[in-house]
Design a protein that fits this description.
The chain is mainly α and 142 residues long. The chain contains 6 helices and 2 strands; from the N terminus they run H-H-H-E-E-H-H-H.
Length: 142
């Protein structure tokens, strides 16, 4: 299952913020939108949702912007998805045939595996992967 555009954009913004976290720098929505080619208005809405969920902190003023509210290593992809893509209510069951039970068991197993995997991936690990790719690209061009 792929991420929605909304979640992909949010993750790109969060990786940007994770990259500047060690320096304490703040990034404005316009900066992130430009760097990642994300529609600014759309990003503003997502940043508000992430802030309300406690994943971001916003600072007002001319040198304001957004920062991660916690260390990047403590923010999992599962948290981000829970914030932006809440789990829909399950559809009412139309009976319980053996075939439906088999399909439900498969769906439940896949859901659990996905949740475990997303909990295991932090923003810090995404940042590390990004940095490794950038380093490999730089080495290739030398």
């Amino acid at each position: 299952m792929l991420f929605s555009a909304k979640t992909s954009y949010a993750l790109l913004a969060l990786i940007e913020l994770a990259g500047v976290q060690p320096s304490g720098e703040r990034l404005q929505v316009a900066q992130i939108a430009t760097r990642q080619q994300i529609p600014e208005r759309y990003l503003e809405q997502m940043m508000g949702s992430l802030r309300k969920a406690g994943l971001l902190r916003s600072i007002r003023g001319p040198k304001g912007g957004y920062q991660l509210a916690r260390p990047a290593a403590s923010i999992s992809l599962a948290e981000v998805l829970d914030c932006l893509e809440p789990e829909p209510s399950p559809a009412p069951s139309r009976g319980s045939t053996a075939e439906q039970q088999v399909l439900n068991q498969i769906a439940q197993g896949l859901k659990q595996q996905r949740e475990q995997r997303l909990k295991a991936i932090s923003l810090a690990s995404l940042l590390t992967q990004r940095d490794e790719l950038l380093l490999a690209q730089a080495m290739y061009f030398i």
